[in-house]
Design a protein that fits this description.
With 189 residues, the protein is mainly alpha-helical. Helix content is 77%, strand content 0%. The protein has one domain: Four Helix Bundle (Hemerythrin (Met), subunit A) (Up-down Bundle). It contains six helices and no strands. Helix 2 runs antiparallel to helix 5, helix 3 packs antiparallel against helix 4 and helix 4 packs parallel to helix 6.
């Protein structure tokens, strides 16, 4: 059921990635506001697709597979571009790196746990982390085009807060994953 509304919303997050990335190569405030608008709309679909899927009983295997991948692709692509275009300070590349590494760690853990048929639900703290980063990133995207507020400061503080929550939730996921890894050793041949 790839064409259900929740799946189309999820796919829209993947489709928006090259558009947001492309806007980094366009000079001017309009491009920054455009990237802000696209990313913000995509971030809203992250919440909305799950809500629609559950409320309309349209949860699908495809959606459960693609949703976390779409989120990670969008966030990682934009964090790389923000760093590459010097839209974050050198020191604030560190929280971006922490976020990217945690996403890889959690993806690997989820893949392993799926093999041993163990689910790893998203924690409430992880949802807060996602919410904070989904606010910080578009603030950084708009950057200097928003002359009415200190966007870089606000965005970077948000990125650091998200990174702190990323470390906490990453550690929690790692501990849970390690318990299952120890409980499911590879049989010796």
């Amino acid at each position: 059921m790839v064409t259900s509304l929740p799946n189309l919303l999820t796919l829209s997050r993947v489709v928006v990635i090259p558009l947001v990335v492309g806007l980094f190569y366009v000079d001017g405030d309009a491009a920054r506001w455009g990237a802000w608008a696209l990313f913000s709309a995509a971030a809203i679909t992250d919440w909305f697709d799950g809500y629609v899927a559950r409320s309309m009983n349209l949860v699908s295997t495809f959606g459960r597979f693609l949703d976390p991948i779409a989120d990670k692709l969008l966030v990682v692509a934009v964090l790389f571009m923000l760093a590459a275009f010097d839209r974050v300070s050198t020191i604030s590349v560190l929280p971006a790196l922490v976020i990217v590494l945690r996403e890889i760690l959690v993806s690997g853990l989820r893949e392993f746990l799926a093999e041993v048929r163990v689910g790893m639900p998203v924690s409430r703290l992880a949802k807060w982390k996602t919410g904070i980063q989904m606010v910080a990133i578009p603030v950084l995207l708009v950057g200097d085009a928003a002359t009415f507020m200190p966007t870089r400061l606000i965005g970077e503080v948000g990125l650091w807060l998200a990174a702190i929550l990323t470390l906490i939730t990453g550690w929690d996921y790692l501990q849970a994953g390690l318990r299952h890894i120890r409980a499911n050793p590879v049989p010796k041949e």
